[in-house]
């Protein structure tokens, strides 16, 4: 079982990745490039973070 510190670090890492992905998606949308697959990936990442947060770490998703 992963330690609480590991889960917290994983959540923070994924949150920063999600922020980067959001910015990249916005750039692609402004350029007129399709972003459906990127948005799907972002939703899966957010779901994973929400799952980690609900596992009792005391974190809440920053986008909620």
Give a written overview of the molecule.
It is elongated and about 45 Å long. With 64 residues, it is mostly helical. The model has no long low-confidence stretch (mean pLDDT 85). 70% of the residues lie in helices and 0% in strands. The longest helix has 27 residues, at 4-30. Helix 1 runs antiparallel to helix 2 (36-53).
In short:
The protein has two helices and no strands.
Q: Which descriptors would you attach to this protein?
A:
2 helices, 64 residues, elongated, mainly alpha
The percent range for strand residues is under 5%
**Beta strand count:** 0
Q: Structural class of the helix and strand makeup?
A: mainly alpha
Which descriptor suits the 3D outline? elongated
Write the layout of secondary structure elements.
Blueprint: H1 4-30, H2 36-53
Helix pairs in contact: 1-2
């Amino acid at each position: 079982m992963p330690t609480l510190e590991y889960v917290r670090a994983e959540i923070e890492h994924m949150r920063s990745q999600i922020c980067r992905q959001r910015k990249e998606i916005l750039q692609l949308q402004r350029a007129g490039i399709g972003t459906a697959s990127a948005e799907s990936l972002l939703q899966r990442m957010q779901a994973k973070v929400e799952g980690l947060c609900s596992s009792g770490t005391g974190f809440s998703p920053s986008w909620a």
